Amino acid sequence: MAPGPLTTIAHGDLSVDIAPQAGGRIAQIRHRGVEQLIGPHDGTPAMIAWGSYPMVPWAGRLRHGRFSFGGRDYRLPLNHGEHAIHGVAFGLPWQVDAHAQDRAELSLPLPQDRRWPFGGVARQAIHVQAQRLEMRLSLQAGTQAMPAVIGWHPWFRKPDRIEFSPTRFYPRDPHGIATLPLTVPPPGPWDDCFINEADVVVHRAGQRLRLTSNCVHWVVFDEAAHATCIEPQSGPPDAFNLEPTLLLPGETLEAWFLIEWQ
């Protein structure tokens, strides 16, 4: 997926390229000239495999694209083998509603069709300050109630190491889908969802990045040789079947994600 025209925001040593047409994602983060994300031209053409994109209205794998809600059964289109993954927003063009030197705001009316029958509106606010990148994401229900999970999927260039101390994790079944009950986190490598309320620290290229969020669900994928994904989200993969969050008509789910250079 080509990034399309970029919207850039910057403050001092920190600059962020946003690709509104490519799922409203951050295409690149640069601090003192060091690029931190896998970019669109790094030999990873799949749209789910570069930048840092919002996951809306669900995050991670939704088992076979199936779930029940409000007394009805739904099946969403499959986009990752036998499963539906990471929502619909990462593959749709977002509207830039505001753009200043150090901030941008974007929005996306969600489809109300077979891809996602509930509609709603997603919004992002991205703000850079000295040594700090703040991201806010929200999902507002439309005229009908709906399930909802939101989060971010950053593809960090392979860190030298990460500091990550989760307390519990969701075991994966033979299909790679998160299950319950929660248990003790295993040693890596991982492609798993964890409960984590501590800072996550990324060390790479002489820089130290501190990651925090109001989300307590974090997915870490570090099995790839070229990248590590560290993903704060409001619920686990397959949340519509495991731990559904309900939005009533007009209600909003909000989350924030902060990266600080130390």
UniProtKB/TrEMBL annotation:
Gene3D superfamilies: 2.70.98.10. Pfam families: Aldose_epim. It comes from the Bacteria. InterPro entries: Aldose_1/G6P_1-epimerase (IPR008183), Gal_mutarotase_sf_dom (IPR011013), GH-type_carb-bd (IPR014718). This is Aldose epimerase. It comes from Pseudoxanthomonas putridarboris. The lineage of its organism: Bacteria, Pseudomonadati, Pseudomonadota, Gammaproteobacteria, Lysobacterales.
